[in-house]
Amino acid sequence: MDTRWKPEYEVGHPRIDSEHQVFLDLIEQFTSEAARGVDAKRLSRHCAELYKYADFHFFSEEGLLESVGYNDLEGHKRLHADLLKSLRIFIESISIDSIMADEMAEFLLGWFVNHTTAEDPKHIHFLPKTSPYNR
Ligand SMILES: [Fe+2]
Description:
This protein is mainly α.
């Protein structure tokens, strides 16, 4: 699985891109730990870290979209909520069976690639390139 950052993941908004880079970094860390078969306690901790970061990033991205009155905010929020729901299911399974960690790593990377290249570009041109956080 190739978890390196690629130019096609860039959506062109500095804050969203930097949050996406951290998110991919956490996916990469989780993937390599799952592949090395680290203990379930550590894997669970990293799952929780991933979940919290995804939750933060979605809240942050949705805030930006809300500030510009993006017309499909509800639809985009649903995609984010669905991912969080899937992650919660994976996290529960991992505490029971660490084999699920490999499956979760693969699912997450697939979701990340699809979301950044197919879904986020739909809203990105609505956003000004700067935000109070980028100044
Ligand atoms: Fe998004």
